[in-house]
UniProtKB/TrEMBL annotation, chains A, B:
GO terms for cellular component: cytoplasm. HAMAP family: Gluconeogen_factor. This is Gluconeogenesis factor. Coiled coil: none annotated. It comes from Lentibacillus salicampi.
Amino acid sequence: MGSEKQPSVVVIGGGTGMPVLLRGLKNLPIDLTALVTVADDGGSTGRLRDEMSIPAPGDIRNVIAALSDAEPMLLELFQHRFTVGNSLSGHSMGNLLLAAMTSVTGNFFTGIQEISRVLNVKGNIYPISNESMSLHAEMADGTIVSGESNIPLANKKVERVYLRPQPVQPLPDAVNAIQHADLIVVAPGSLYTSILPNMIIPQIDVALSNTKANVVYVCNVMTQAGETTGYTAADHVQAIRRHIGEACIDSVVVHNEPISKHVRQVYAEENATPVIYDTDRLLEMGLQIIEGDIIDPSRTTLRHDTQKIAKLLYSLIDKE
Amino acid sequence: MGSEKQPSVVVIGGGTGMPVLLRGLKNLPIDLTALVTVADDGGSTGRLRDEMSIPAPGDIRNVIAALSDAEPMLLELFQHRFTVGNSLSGHSMGNLLLAAMTSVTGNFFTGIQEISRVLNVKGNIYPISNESMSLHAEMADGTIVSGESNIPLANKKVERVYLRPQPVQPLPDAVNAIQHADLIVVAPGSLYTSILPNMIIPQIDVALSNTKANVVYVCNVMTQAGETTGYTAADHVQAIRRHIGEACIDSVVVHNEPISKHVRQVYAEENATPVIYDTDRLLEMGLQIIEGDIIDPSRTTLRHDTQKIAKLLYSLIDKE
């Protein structure tokens, strides 16, 4: 039990991919920090954001649940979604707690910290910004689609995404975490609506490009209709570079085993196909490629295997 | 630190009077149990009751807050009331937590127990029933007024109150607590809408009449418009007897100091006046009278003094 500083690992993301990564990482001897998007606007989260002018709490809620060591019943309460009650239906208890704690403490980030303390969260959870924001996309055909949840529904080729109001202020702790990280992991997830909304924020983009840490992108395993149809792994990275420049991603983690026919059939119904890992192009782009069998084969909904991916990411840390 | 059994004190009530009593009692070396009304229907509580078919959580919430040893910020969160948000405005966080925990555990009482555990509640909190119910009043003029919050608004003389559906099933633990109590305290509060809705429930009425414990009624200090206008202390007890018989109240606690002119003026605006303690009539009714200076003089809203009343009630316990 030395007093040595543990390596700092920063994970950036949102949606469903990020919690999977965090569940495995939280048990490792690292100083773990999650930087989480607050730009979503669907369902309960969107209603709270609009009615209460707070940053979107939904992705934060899922990260809290992933990093919490609280007993199962408390987490069930936290993740409970009201299904009855005219006015409450669709609201998640955790979102309401985050909204109420924001009122009580006067500050979204402080509210997150207090809820995290009560739920015995391991690691730090930073909203990428303490402000309410909205996401917009400029499509390849020049049209603009406003609202995170509307972007994939438009089913057009996305050229770029941007945030309003401009400039969005990042949480200073989030910038600082990137600057002092030993490893930065860009989580898998919806590229334009969960991942990039973090990376395009002023100061966050610069910090990602300037950090000395290895910035590792865990690439999606399947394409996503309305966002990344037909994208190869290199196309994913290229989309990020198009937004914030060449220097931001150093390495890409790719899954190196075939996806089962059954799973492909399930995803085909959503117009999603396996991401092709065009390693030659990735190498040409100057990226380090990290391959592994990192998928949980027990599920029909494809998810990274929490333990496998955590172990792989941990192996990337320079522990000198 | 012996292993002797502590005396069992059961407090019955609801509204704002009950938490005042409980705050003082919780620090005494007693086994404390609160039996709480679930018949109210105003505001957040009423909406949740109607929309989710659960017993009214509002009075339970205030009792949890009174008996909790949780840190102040958590209690502030628990008692937080949303003031913005179209769909949430007026809802109290604690009510929402109780409603959600009822869904998670499948049972209102189990939900209360789990929330109580999280908030480090001292003593037992039993809803008087695990069922949703509604309160109705038959007025002296023969009209029926339905709904707890409507009864005082009708501003008529109440003849009797009753519950629907009939028969309401009491919580078995509540009946059991009365049967095994060493002291039973009927809390001050709205006579017809907070106190009697507990006492008139089948089995609760019988248990109160048959218990060997001293049943002590802490009489209101001021009358309440639409409920007890012009009532003396004996009228309060008589109203209880009219509902559940002669044997239910053994003693009456009355405040024996005058109410200041300033406070009387404030209450006069609500058509409330000091309750006259007609001790001769109380004695004629066979009641033991316990007098004390039990009011908190520091407030314009009259409240019993938490510590004084707790001390007085504790002195009534036969500690053999």
